[in-house]
Structures are given as C-alpha cells and as structure tokens.
Specification:
Blueprint: E1 3-6, E2 12-15, H1 25-35, E3 44-46, E4 53-58, H2 67-74, E5 86-92, E6 104-111, H3 112-124, E7 131-133, H4 135-147, E8 152-157, E9 162-168, E10 171-178, H5 182-187, H6 190-214, E11 222-227, H7 231-239, E12 245-248, H8 251-254, E13 256-257, H9 263-267, H10 273-279, H11 281-284
Parallel strand pairs: 2-13, 3-7, 8-11, 11-12
Antiparallel strand pairs: 1-2, 4-6, 5-6, 8-9, 9-10
Helix pairs in contact: 4-10
C-alpha cells in the first residue's frame, strides 16, 4: 500500500508505504483506511494478474459511447466465460490510422464477480473505492514521469517476475511479462547472469521491433530500467546486449519518498513499485 500527494510545482510525494499480510489483511487495510488514511485521498485497487486479461483488438466502427458494448461481443471467442459476465474497460492505442487499417484498442477484461467481490468489501466498510486498476497501468503511471509524450520502454525487475511495457503519448501500447525476477538474479553466477541478460535482450528486441512496425511514427530509443536489486548494475549489463539506450530508473529521482523502503523490506523481498504506481493514478492520468 502507498499514498501519493502532489506538492505544488514539485515531485509527487509518496508516503505511508505499508504492507498488510495474513488472512485478515483486507480487514486490516479497511480499518487503516477508516482510521488513519490521509483525508481526501482516493483509493485505487490493483487486481491480481491472474484475475484479468489484456487483449488488443481492432476498434469496432461505432460511436465512443457504444465502444464497450461492441467490444464485449468481439471478445466472446477470446475469453473463457460468457461475455455478459465480463467487466471490461477499453483504452485507445495512439498512432495515426493509415489507409483502411482500423485503429486499435486495448481491452482489459475480468469477471464481474471479481470486481463485485472487491467492491463489496468497501461497501460493507462504508468506504469509497475510487478505481480498480491493473499492474500494467500502475507501471505506466511511473513511466510517464520520465517519458512525457515520447515513446519509451519501461522494464521493471520485481522479486519474482519482470514486466516490460511500452508507452507512447502517455498511453500504454504494449506489454510483456517474464517469469524471472530479482530473487533469481541474486542466486546466479556470472555465466547464468549473462545468459539471462541475453534472454532479456531478445525479449526487448522482439517487443520493440513489433512496436516499431505497428507505430512507425514513434521514435523509441530508450529503455528505463527499474529493479528491486541494483538497478544501475542491471542497466549496465543489459545495455551491453541491445542497441537501445538503457537508463536506470530510480524512484527517488522522480518522486519525493517520505517513507523510503527500509532494510527489512528488502530482507522480506517486498516491492512497493506497483503500489506506488497505483497511488499515482490520479496524479499522472491526463
């Protein structure tokens, strides 16, 4: 959990980094929100990655007000439950439409029962839940702190997995997830580490090449790298493998961390990056 606030003319402030664990974690979080949360803060919840899908499809030729209903039926063969049971949201992918090629949308889809269960917790506690979001958008909120309108790749090495997103014009355009993380990096010898970075380089190259073909107007030359372990070292090793410039992304360069991660957080392999990104939703979303 993280709280964000925007200082006038300054960096977004991040405070109250906190973890709620155990079988009563939801009740503990709600109790904290009721008794200790800063007044006026909005609550943005992230779904578990296993609870949703992101699907890129051609945008149907309908009015914006009809987009979600049209997309719902286009997804019927792409999801494993009835479309009327789906809760979904759509994000328009930026770029110029050429010739007869349709524009594209990213559709985030989950079951209504998943969304409803989370909403019920807050309803019973008589608290407001401002939004239900996803990890990829939390990373987007962090990436745009540095990218502005430019196209950039953002790679986050978490403890268990690594996420790769590309943003352009402050919009999420594409994403990948690799099942390897900082915990494994720490346990690798030099040869295993070199092999890993070759894999990273291959995945980044494939993803950025595909992005370049789809978004020819975007000029992607930079990878920002965030990592739970030694971001400067990881960036240096990766830059030796790819043609793109790789630059370490250090949260305290872009944010005012009033409660920075503690040594015990690292020892317990806690990663607040996604929580921080979720807290930034209202600060960075145009």
């Amino acid at each position: 959990m993280a709280c964000a606030r925007q200082a006038p003319g300054g960096k977004p402030g991040i405070h109250k980094l906190q973890r709620f664990a155990g079988p009563d974690r939801i009740e503990a979080l709600l109790d904290w929100q009721k008794t200790s949360a800063p007044k006026g803060n909005q609550t943005n919840l992230l779904l578990e990655p296993s609870d949703y899908q992101i699907l890129q499809i051609d945008a149907p030729p309908v009015e914006p007000s009809e987009l979600q209903d049209a997309v719902r039926w286009l997804l019927k063969d792409l999801i494993d439950f009835p479309p009327h049971d789906a809760a979904l949201d759509c994000m328009t992918v930026p770029g110029e439409q050429t010739g007869n090629s349709p524009s594209r949308v990213l559709s985030v889809v989950t079951r209504k029962s998943v969304v409803g269960a989370w909403m019920l917790h807050w309803h019973k506690a008589k608290l407001a839940l401002s939004s239900i979001d996803i990890a990829e958008m939390a990373l987007r909120n962090i990436a745009v702190l540095a990218s502005g309108e430019q196209a950039v790749a953002f790679l986050h090495v978490g403890w268990d997995t690594t996420s790769l997103i590309i943003v352009w014009q402050q919009s999420l355009c594409t994403f990948r997830q690799l099942n390897i993380g900082g915990g494994q990096l720490l346990a690798m010898d030099d040869l295993e580490r070199a092999t890993l970075f070759e894999r990273f380089a291959l995945e980044i190259q494939r993803t950025t090449d595909a992005f370049g073909r789809q978004f020819s107007a975007a000029d992607l030359t930079l990878v920002w790298l965030s990592s739970v372990v030694d971001a400067p070292g990881v960036a240096r090793d990766l830059s030796a493998q790819i043609d793109l410039r790789v630059q370490p992304f250090l949260l305290d360069d872009w944010l005012s961390l009033e409660d920075p991660p503690r040594e015990e957080d690292v020892e317990q392999r806690l990663d607040y990056t996604l929580a921080i990104g979720a807290a930034l939703r209202m600060e960075t979303t145009p």
